[in-house]
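F.,

This is the one I mentioned.
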């Protein structure tokens, strides 16, 4: 780190060169720094002030409304913010309050670097006034952990989304999905609609639902849906592996209302996937734990390595985002040997069958064509070889069935471990931002729309973010 070469003053020396005339040439007119002495100490502050001025930065000795960047070495936000708020600055909400890393990076670059979220010292008790930290309308520009502070709202929105999807009403479905995703990203709980002014994607209807929940603890619109027979039935039917909204609707129209209706109706012909879905219903509707995911990883890793020693397996999907439980386990498996990845899945499936643990398999060979432009479809990995499996795994209670997804992209397209990480909203927005803001189409590799769909060499996930001009978002921050 650059920081280590800056001398750290241990003993107190006389106050820094306040008032000493400045001769350095100012290079950055429109920014003004203020270094907080707390924790930094006065002699280190003096040294850093000189360093910055020698590089053409304006450093103010006094904290006033002119300051644009407040730099603090004290990364404990609450005493710092208490102190800052006590200064009575009307422009405080506009200032960047950053830690020393922003300063050292700017010194190293000899210019002010862009303030990123990781530089900011966030106010621990944000009030409406200091809340101007803008929230992006794109999930890929927000950091969303698994901790959802607004579950009471997002659960309600998800019921509305499902209901709109059942009725094939796409606009409002998308609107509520986006609103839920924005609320999931907040490090605070919405307690009043007044605090939501600066939030994107919250429309009139969304706010009306929130208002009801704030006022009565529940939404009557949502309660009505939950009590609706059609909603309940479609929800039940689509909970079966292999049953989508279309099939569920068809069964509903025939007057079927329960699993036993479906299973005893002689006119219903279940396909192979649905038969397995019903057969293993109890097991696969039970959440999969991280430990079970790991155990499965070992089994598949072993199978892949038996085929080719340079096979690489990576956990992806919800578990890669740090979730404790999942509805399935997702893996990417590939090999640096180009073309060989295409034969990987069939051989792995075969091996699992020989081991007697394969309960169901639905394999889709690759339709990927590097010479064709990426599709606009939202599912990023649509074209790669993949399979949807049900495997038997042993846990403390004995054997159980678990849903497992494997995808096998060619190495150059998706160096491990990118893609299939999700969340779905995060990936949708990555592609939406690429298309609308950057004029690029995004499969797994970003590719410029002009000229002639040139594929850009994507090397790592970090490169993909950088190429799109985005701050890197860690997998555990993609739970949008
Ligand atoms: N995916 C995809 N195409 C599909 C299915 C899934 O590209 N036909 C990708 C999506 O990128 C999705 C990821 O696989 O984000 C994981 O999907 P899924 O397993 O359904 O969801 P998770 O986020 O893993 O959540 P859960 O823990 O419930 O499994
Ligand atoms: Mn998953
Ligand atoms: Mn999956």
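My design for it:
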């Amino acid at each position: 780190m650059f920081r280590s070469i800056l001398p750290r003053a241990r003993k107190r020396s006389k106050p820094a060169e306040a008032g000493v005339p400045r001769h350095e040439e100012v290079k950055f007119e429109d920014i003004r720094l203020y270094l907080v002495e707390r924790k930094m100490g006065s002699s280190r502050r003096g040294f850093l002030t000189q360093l910055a001025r020698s590089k053409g930065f304006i450093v103010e000795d006094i904290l006033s409304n002119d300051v644009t960047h407040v730099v603090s070495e004290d990364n404990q936000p609450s005493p710092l913010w208490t102190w800052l708020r006590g200064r009575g600055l009307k422009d405080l909400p506009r200032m960047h309050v950053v830690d020393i890393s922003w300063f050292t990076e700017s010194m190293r670059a000899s210019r002010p670097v862009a303030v990123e979220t990781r530089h900011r010292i966030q106010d621990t008790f944000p009030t409406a006034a200091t809340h101007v930290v803008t929230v992006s309308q794109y999930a890929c520009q927000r950091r969303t952990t698994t901790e959802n502070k607004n579950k009471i709202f997002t659960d309600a929105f998800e019921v509305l989304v499902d209901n709109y999807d059942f009725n094939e009403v796409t606009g409002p479905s998308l609107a509520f999905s986006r609103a839920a995703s924005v609320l999931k990203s907040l490090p605070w709980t919405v307690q009043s609609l007044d605090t939501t002014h600066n939030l994107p994607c919250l429309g009139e209807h969304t706010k009306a639902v929130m208002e009801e929940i704030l006022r009565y603890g529940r939404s009557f619109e949502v309660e009505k849906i939950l009590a609706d027979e059609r909603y309940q039935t479609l929800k039940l039917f689509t909970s079966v592996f292999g049953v989508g909204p279309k099939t569920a609707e068809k069964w509903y129209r025939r007057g079927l209302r329960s699993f036993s209706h479906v299973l005893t109706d002689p006119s219903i012909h279940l396909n192979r996937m649905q038969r397995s879905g019903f057969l293993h219903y109890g097991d696969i509707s039970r959440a999969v734990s991280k430990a079970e995911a790991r155990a499965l990883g070992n089994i598949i890793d072993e199978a892949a390595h038996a085929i080719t020693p340079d096979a690489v397996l990576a956990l992806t999907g919800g578990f890669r985002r740090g979730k404790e439980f999942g509805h399935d386990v997702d893996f990417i498996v590939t090999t640096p040997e180009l073309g060989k990845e295409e034969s990987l899945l069939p051989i792995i499936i075969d091996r699992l069958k020989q081991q007697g643990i394969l309960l169901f398999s639905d394999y889709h060979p690759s339709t990927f064509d590097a010479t064709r432009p990426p599709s606009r479809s939202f599912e990023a990995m649509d074209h790669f070889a993949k399979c949807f499996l049900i495997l038997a795994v042993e846990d403390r209670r004995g054997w159980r069935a678990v849903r497992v997804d494997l995808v096998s992209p060619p190495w150059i397209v998706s160096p491990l471990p990118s893609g299939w990480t999700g969340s779905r909203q995060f990936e949708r927005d990555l592609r939406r931002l690429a298309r609308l803001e950057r004029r690029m189409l995004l499969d797994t590799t970003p590719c410029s729309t002009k000229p002639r769909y040139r594929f850009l060499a994507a090397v790592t996930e970090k490169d993909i973010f950088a190429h799109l001009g985005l701050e890197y978002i860690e997998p555990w921050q993609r739970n949008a």
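Residues 1-19, 447-457 have pLDDT under 50 and may be disordered.

Talk soon.
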